[in-house]
Design goal:
It contains ten helices and four strands. It has 249 residues and is α+β, with helices and mostly antiparallel strands. Helix 3 packs antiparallel against helix 6 and helix 6 packs parallel to helix 8. It holds the Pfam family GST_C_6.
Length: 249
């Protein structure tokens, strides 16, 4: 059995992290049985962060490396019906989502003050309860500093908010234009690209943190319908209801 190690569900989603949501969706597209385990902690994570899995007593981190490992080990491939050209396009869109659009999402979480204050509360209630109250603030401050440095190092954090919005808007429009009227990004069947896209688009559209980037995503009807389609096909109403964690209750 595949053990998935993550942080915590929220907003009707299986996890706070879009990379974890991506893996949940990939497992379901690939029809792989798995379970969420709380046995291991961040200290056990091979890359020092979630998600990571344990399979056959081996720990693997990074969502893309996990998918590559399972595809090879279990001899499966949700992309097997794609041509070489389509596989290249799929990979390019995954890179757009994870290496560019992701950092726009991160900017609005950490660098918009009201959003960061709200997200701090979420992290404290859902993730940090295992730690003594006396050190939670230190952990959050260190996390904030680390993420802001990563934003700057990536380059997204060097832009103004209007510039970041325009960058994210172009990414969202490119995804919308390519999806068009297709049920999934590469056609009739869901592939790895759909897992990645759902992870990030659902996190952007369904969370409780306002941003101009979210407003732009919600204007693109086919992206909304895509998220609804993936949720309806690969998740149950009971699951999403259970994951609708109420903060402060």
């Amino acid at each position: 059995m595949i053990e998935l190690h993550q942080s915590s569900p929220c907003w009707g989603l299986p996890d706070l992290s879009p990379f974890c949501i991506k893996l949940h969706t990939y497992f379901r597209i690939a029809k792989l049985p798995y379970e969420v385990s709380r046995e291991l902690t961040f200290q056990d994570a091979p890359k020092g962060k979630t998600p990571f899995i344990r399979y056959n007593n081996k720990l693997i981190g990074d969502s893309n490396l996990i998918i590559d490992y399972l595809n090879k080990t279990l001899e499966i491939d949700p992309n097997e019906n794609l041509s070489h050209e389509e596989k290249g396009v799929s990979l390019a869109f995954i890179r757009l989502i994870e290496e560019n659009l992701y950092w726009g999402l991160i900017y609005y979480i950490y660098k918009v003050e009201d959003n960061w204050l709200s997200y701090r509360t979420i992290l404290e209630e859902l993730i940090l309860k295992q730690f003594p109250e006396s050190i939670r603030n230190q952990i959050l401050e260190e996390l904030y500093d680390q993420i802001v440095k990563q934003l700057w190092g990536h380059g997204m954090g060097r832009h103004s908010e209007p510039e970041i919005y325009e960058i994210g808007k172009r990414d969202l429009c490119a995804l919308s234009d390519f999806l068009g009227n297709k049920p999934f990004f590469m056609g009739e069947k869901a592939t790895t690209l759909d897992a990645a896209a759902y992870g990030f688009l659902s996190r952007l559209m369904y969370d409780s943190l306002p941003s101009s980037l979210k407003e732009e995503a919600l204007k693109l009807d086919n992206l909304q319908l895509f998220c609804e389609r993936v949720r309806a096909e690969f998740y149950t109403q009971q699951e999403t209801k259970a994951w609708n964690v109420q903060i402060g209750s």
